[in-house]
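S.,

Sequence below, as promised.
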Amino acid sequence: MNSIELGLDTFGDVTVDSDGRSLAQAEVLRHVVDEAVLADQLGLAFFGVGEHHRKDFSISAPEVVLGAIAGRTTRIQLGTAVTVLSTDDPVRVFERFSTLNAVSNGRAEVLVGRGSFTESYPLFGYDLGQYEALFEEKLNLFVELLKGEPVTWKGQLRSSLSNQVVYPPSQTGTLKTWVAVGGSPESVVRAAHYGLPLMLAIIGGSPQRFTGYSDLYRQMLERFKKPLMPIGVHSPGHVAATDEQAKEELWPHYAGLMNRIGAERGWQPIGRAHFEREAAEGALFVGSPQTVAAKIVKTVRTLGLSRFDMKYSNGTLPHDKLMTSIELYGTKVVPLVREQLD
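The prediction came back faster than expected:
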């Protein structure tokens, strides 16, 4: 278990300055690059940026951001969290990530999913009623592209390809590609069917409740005669010197984020009791390095993980707090996790 990879994710959440004023998305994007550079300097395994098309998240072109990061880093793997494949073209996604893989010297990864937000569907002219069909067909084509050979393919929602070569070819022969799953057994089975690594997005409730999904994935890999593949988890978190400091720093920003999204989706507003439950037993990895490390270790052991990525950005939580959290994650949490898993 000492081979666990520990990384970080962000959506480029729009943060505030010391006076509580929202920063421009352009400044937030520059901060994201600085945050990734720090993660690389600390020796973290992975840095992921999530695609969104809304005012509270600044990253709408993740490959461009990752290209900027690639130019200032040397070791860290770079990928998405997620790429909304349903509303993109698989050929273009492959071309962009193969390019990123080249300029980063083989450090690119792709995390494909349907997205938990739906703003990209009307924005790019897709029918939300085809939510399932779009992802299934586009993933099917993307898997063909990953083979690194001329592609002949026919679908219902996109033009066909005949012995088509896509450029640039990946210098590593393929692209490491994960499938993101938020809670659908059918999505778990789909990932296993294609023999792709599984990334579980656990953003609420106990991580232990996803044991059924990790078990199902391994069973389906065996049934489809696929080799054993990695399982990862993406969950929100924040690290500070003490549990109390971490929770006090995070709480107002986390509440603002969750209640803003909740209002869009018709959810009841959350209160401090909900936050404390998520911190104690749920999917919120918040606290001192010791507390966060212990919770990661428990999750890794329970689900049999190969990767854990903490979404360190949480609503309007300021850049300086994010940088401190990243530093503590890299210098304190990671060594503690490795020590306890050894």
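The chain has one domain: 5-341.

Coffee later?
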